[in-house]
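With this grant's support, we have settled on a layout for protein records. A representative record follows, to show the layout.
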Amino acid sequence: MWKKAIPNVLYTVGIFVCIISGYQYGIEGHNYVFLAGAVLLIGIFVYLKIKILKDIKDTLKKP
């Protein structure tokens, strides 16, 4: 289970970093291509995070 918890934490950190950098460089810096990349990465991280959380939930349900 720890092998799945560590990527979960890294996905959370990745989402946070993408939000901060997307705002700073994309919106404040008027670089909308960078903002689009940050939004795409956030989407990928959220998808992977949901997938791993479902897997952890199924692992905990099994006796």
About this structure: The mean pLDDT is 93.
